Amino acid sequence: MKNYTEAKNMKELAKILKLPKGEAAKVEMRTDLVVAIKKAVEGKRLTHAEAASRAGVGRTVITAILNGNTTHISTDRLIDIVQSLGLSVRLKIA
Length: 94
Fold this sequence. Notes:
The chain is mainly α. It is 57% helix and 0% strand. Helix 1 (10-16) packs across helix 2 (23-43).
């Protein structure tokens, strides 16, 4: 017997968590930014300190992001970090 609910996408997760309408897109965008940062740091084999230096932020900020703790990190800052790691950001509106 399972004691949990599975979400197949961000929209389902937002519904399960009873987030206000429209929050799913924000959560998905932030998640995509974090995943991009993780992939860039791992792909370039950067230490947290090296990634932080490139991004112009403290090492603890990079460590928090890589651990999925982005509560106190703005979306703008995530975008800046992604760009500082050599990636570009594009927003698709459908």
